[in-house]
Amino acid sequence: MTDKDETSEKKLERNPEWSVWMQEAQAGDKKSYNKLLSAITPALRRFVQGRIFNIDAIEDIVQEILMAIHKSRHTYRIDQPFERWMYGVARYKMIDYLRKMTRHTKKEILSDNFETFSELASNNNDEGILSRDLSNALEQLPEKQQRIINMMKIDGFSITETAEKMEMSESAVKVAAHRGYKKMQDWLVKNGYDDNL
């Protein structure tokens, strides 16, 4: 990275002091580390609240993110904005939460998960990788499932409207969508969206 590139990246930071505190924390400064944790916790809470709709899970996810940041703090490079690194950790932890949630329940909640995945992908310009991965996951599906998911989650059609346009029963649309979400989720997990952090 050139000096110009580094300067440009630093200008993108809303809280440049976080990068300074993290560098100091990596050097063993406990006061800076405590200041950093105190500052980022409410920011992470807002970040999670805007993307996860299960209110009861928000605090647990925030704590998981903070633990992941603590465990992987040695991987932070001083030549990159801390916020980008931090929110990258947060995104992966939220996706991990969604994966675990769908693994441990029999309820048809994958529809909500897809909306949350989409929200994660579209809510921030830095999240283009996730957006591309969602597109790639969608491309793994048969054309009919792709059309159903596009209609319901991108075009905003209801199940009834989708069923009419696809000339299918509503229950068949639900089953096709559910299977599509599951296939997409499996593809995402196989391609790195897991608990490696």
CATH homologous superfamily annotation of the largest domain: RNA polymerase sigma factor, region 2, helix turn helix motif
- Structurally, the number of domains stands at 2
Q: Give the biggest sheet.
A: none
The fold-level CATH name of the largest domain is Rna Polymerase Sigma Factor, Chain: A
Quaternary organisation: single chain
Outline type: elongated
Helix content: over 70%
List keywords for this structure.
single chain; 197 residues; mainly alpha; Rna Polymerase Sigma Factor, Chain: A; Arc Repressor Mutant, subunit A; 0% strand; disordered N terminus
Could you provide a short overview of the structure?
The protein is an all-alpha fold. It has ten helices and no strands.
Q: How are the SSEs ordered, and which strands pair?
A:
Elements: H1 3-11, H2 16-26, H3 30-49, H4 55-71, H5 82-103, H6 110-122, H7 128-139, H8 143-154, H9 159-166, H10 170-190
